[in-house]
Every structure is written in C-alpha cells, then in structure tokens.
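Technical note accompanying the year-one report. For the benefit of new consortium partners, we illustrate the data format agreed upon in the data management plan: each record pairs a sequence with a structure-token string. No post-processing was applied to the example shown here.
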Amino acid sequence: MPAPRKYPQELRERSVRLVMEVRAGEPGLSLNAAVNRIGHRVGVNRDTLRGWCRQAEVDAGIRPGVTTADVATIKALEREVRELKRANEILLAASSFFARELVPRLSF
C-alpha cells in the first residue's frame, strides 16, 4: 500500500500551474528560480515542487522521460506478470502432482 500523499492533488496542480505561468511570463527564468519563488508562497517544499514540475513537463512532452500514464501501465503489466507467473507455478505443481498419481495406476 503506498504512503498517503502529503499534499492534495488540487494543490499540486495549482502549484505546477503557477510555476509554469511565472516561467511563461519571464522567459529567462530558470525552473529553480521559479520553484523558489512559488514554493515558498504556496507552502510546498521546493524539491517536491521541482519534481512535480519536471514530471508535468515530461507528461506534456516538453522534457524526455517516462510519462505518468506510462508508469501506471508498466506497474499494471508488472502486476499482471507476477499473477501469471504465480498461476503458472500452481498449474505446474498441480500437473506434476497428478502425473505422479496417475502413472502408477496406468501400469499393467
């Protein structure tokens, strides 16, 4: 079970939007400078806000990386693979069990 989120989703979205607006208004402003300016005002740790902004840029296609949707898909597929491997192990164990039980009975 994942840890509970410290910041509500609405605050995350608003904070990222503010950083993007500040950077759009001042084209020479770096991400770090914008995060320092906005993070203090909204009460969000600067490193946390910087991570949110980088992920938002990845999701928007501005920065290379794995999008949030892709991460969710990968996690779901990994979960499915684990379940399938477990089911396969159970089926292999069952088939070997029944094979051992059936072989002595078939002897003439």
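Partners are asked to follow this layout when depositing records. The two ends are 56 Å apart (CA to CA).
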